[in-house]
Structure formats: C-alpha cells, structure tokens
Amino acid sequence: MFGSLINYWQYTGDTSYNPVVSQALAFQIGPDENFNPPNQSKNMGVDDQAFWAFTALDAAEANFPEAGGNIPSWIALAQAVFNFQQDLWDDTTCGGGMRWQVYQFNPGYNLKNTISNGGNFQIAARLAYYTGNQTYADWAVKMWDWMASSPLFQTQDGNLYIWDNTDSNNNCTDVAHYAWTYNYGTMLMGAAYMYNYTNGDPTWEQRVMSILNGAEVLFFPKEYGGNVMSEFQCEPAANCNNDQSSFKAYLSRWMAVTTLLVPSTHDMIMPKLTASAAAAAQQCTGGNNGRMCGRRWYATWDSSSGVGQQMQALSVIGATTIHPGIAPKSVKTGGTSKEDPNAGNGKDASPIQKQKPITTADKAGAAILTILGVSIIVGGSIWIIM
C-alpha cells in the first residue's frame, strides 16, 4: 500500500500523503530496526517483512524524504531486513530456501513459498543495484538458483511458470500449482534489477523475458483482448480474498519499472499496462459514490470493493505515466539514502527471541494506521477517475 503511495508522489508530485507514509514505516520498524516488531510475531511471514523492505527500497530509490530523528535511513532499513533474513536460509530440507513463516509456532512454517524466497531475491537484487555491492548480487544468484532447482519453477517453450509453494515436510518433492500475479511480479522485478546491475547480462535478459512470456500466457487472457490483466486463479469465480484482491497492483508497478531497467521490454509491457489501465478506470463506477473499483477489469463493475481493488486500479493507472526521469536511483545516480551494511546487526535480532505480550497500545496503534491507510487509498482512488 505505502509503496503505491510513494509511486503516486513520484507520478504526480503531490506530497499530501508523504507524512503518513513515513509514519507507517516508522511504526513498523520494531526494536531491531528490521520490520519485525514484537506485536506482529504471531503472524510474521518472511513475505510480510519483505514487503515493508520493498517500500523502504521504493523510498530510497525515489529519494523520498527521510523520516529523520532516530529512524534509520530507508536503505539501511532494507539492509537490516536482508541481514535478518540471511539467518532464515534453511538447508536442512529441500537443499535450501526460506520457509514462509519467521517463527516455528506459526501455521505454514513447513512451506517454502515463492513470495518469501522471491521477496528475498528482490531485496538482494535491489540492494546490489543501489549500493553496487557484489555480496548482494551473489546472494540474489544463490536464491534464484535454488528456486530454479526446486519445483517452484517450471520452464516450457520459453515460458517460466512460477508456482506458489512447496512443502518442506515432503522435502519439496511436490508443488502447489497456483499461479499469482504478485509472484511473477516479484521475480520479474528482481531479474530486471539484476539485468541492469550486470550491465545487460544476456542470461538475466532471457530470465526477464521468460517471466514475461509466462505472465502473458496466464494473466492476459486472449478472450479479453490479450492485454487486460486478470487474476485468473480467483477472479472468474469471484473468490479472491483481501490479499489476492491487491496482487495485480504489484505486477503492474513492477512491470512499469522493468521497462526502465530492461528497455527491450518496453514494447511488450506498455500496451498491456495501457489497456489494463483503461479497463480498470472504466469499471471504477461502483458504490454509492460511483467511484469504487472492482476486481475484474475486463467487465463492468463486479460489485466488489475494498482497499485492494482501489490499490490495484491506482497502481496500474499510475504505471502508465512512468518515464526515465523517475528511474530507480542508486548511489551512482544520485541516491541520497545512506547505507549501513551492518544495519540490524549487534541487536537481539534472532527469530527465536522471546516475544513480549501484545499491549493495548500496540493494538490501538495498528488500528489507527490501518484506518489511515484505508482512508488514503480510498481518497487516492478519487484521483484515478477525476
């Protein structure tokens, strides 16, 4: 959500929401400054932590104003997440990879899924790009290679099919054949950064194209013209949950960035973003105010509404305005967020650490941020169709 608002600031120059974005990031940092606050220990996934790191990276790459005070720099926060997650690499099963959940007592700890491993891959690739540090690039290669050797990846006819999760209890010998836009988005984003970091390595270009080819087959159905994005796994049956109702936002935003990092993809990607944006805007006619967006972009409003639906429409429409002037910055190209390779280290950052009880203040603070976030996204949707 807050990464979408950073993009909104980049696209429009509107600073209205910047203070709330900074507040949200600061609230989530936690005592070890790695987006793993104790009040989230009972539901902290590796992917949850990664998405906050993505937002910090968005901020660093955009020269978004630093929070100041005692808050670490945006890039240092992402580095702290990377440092923390390195300790989550688990080669006791499946030859490596990371589990979905940070803590053993959380449901799903047995799964090794794409969004957690792919999220870590993206963080490493973006840190390599921003800092120029080969250590991050080496880790990104390690993560890609493990995923490519696992059942999560399946290559056929030049298309990469990316599946959702595999079970460490079975030593990752099987796979859940679910395909989601955000899984494709996170792998695409990481591969695009690696292509750029390696000065156009053909291996990474081929990987970018194989992801795009797979995404085209799965998420841009020919029956809707071949250019309008669809979350085919749940949209036709209208059973997308709240998370799934936001997934197209990530693929939209990350496809747009890919056009800047891998220019050869521009002519393939932009027609899809343009058609999807037009379709999304056309169906944002629901609710009492006539401005609510649904999940399905290839039809009239589908009677669904929510933060995810609004964020998806906001993201894909904003993505069509991307231009080289807002390409991700690095230390070589004017990035001002100050690095800290040891961020988060030297603190009690172990995933097994004892957690303090969740307090009433913690719950109240989380509720306030949720309400603020919902209000902002709904307000942002008004901009979409004005």
UniProtKB/TrEMBL annotation:
<protein>
    <recommendedName>
        <fullName>mannan endo-1,6-alpha-mannosidase</fullName>
        <ecNumber>3.2.1.101</ecNumber>
    </recommendedName>
</protein>
<dbReference type="InterPro" id="IPR005198">
    <property type="entry name" value="Glyco_hydro_76"/>
</dbReference>
<dbReference type="GO" id="GO:0012505">
    <property type="term" value="C:endomembrane system"/>
</dbReference>
<dbReference type="InterPro" id="IPR008928">
    <property type="entry name" value="6-hairpin_glycosidase_sf"/>
</dbReference>
<dbReference type="InterPro" id="IPR014480">
    <property type="entry name" value="Mannan-1_6-alpha_mannosidase"/>
</dbReference>
<keyword id="KW-1133">Transmembrane helix</keyword>
<keyword id="KW-0472">Membrane</keyword>
<comment type="similarity">
    <text>Belongs to the glycosyl hydrolase 76 family.</text>
</comment>
<dbReference type="GO" id="GO:0009272">
    <property type="term" value="P:fungal-type cell wall biogenesis"/>
</dbReference>
<feature type="region of interest" description="Disordered">
    <location>
        <begin position="326"/>
        <end position="355"/>
    </location>
</feature>
<keyword id="KW-0326">Glycosidase</keyword>
<feature type="transmembrane region" description="Helical">
    <location>
        <begin position="364"/>
        <end position="385"/>
    </location>
</feature>
<keyword id="KW-0325">Glycoprotein</keyword>
<dbReference type="Pfam" id="PF03663">
    <property type="entry name" value="Glyco_hydro_76"/>
</dbReference>
<dbReference type="GO" id="GO:0016052">
    <property type="term" value="P:carbohydrate catabolic process"/>
</dbReference>
<keyword id="KW-0378">Hydrolase</keyword>
<keyword id="KW-0812">Transmembrane</keyword>
<keyword id="KW-0732">Signal</keyword>
<dbReference type="GO" id="GO:0008496">
    <property type="term" value="F:mannan endo-1,6-alpha-mannosidase activity"/>
</dbReference>
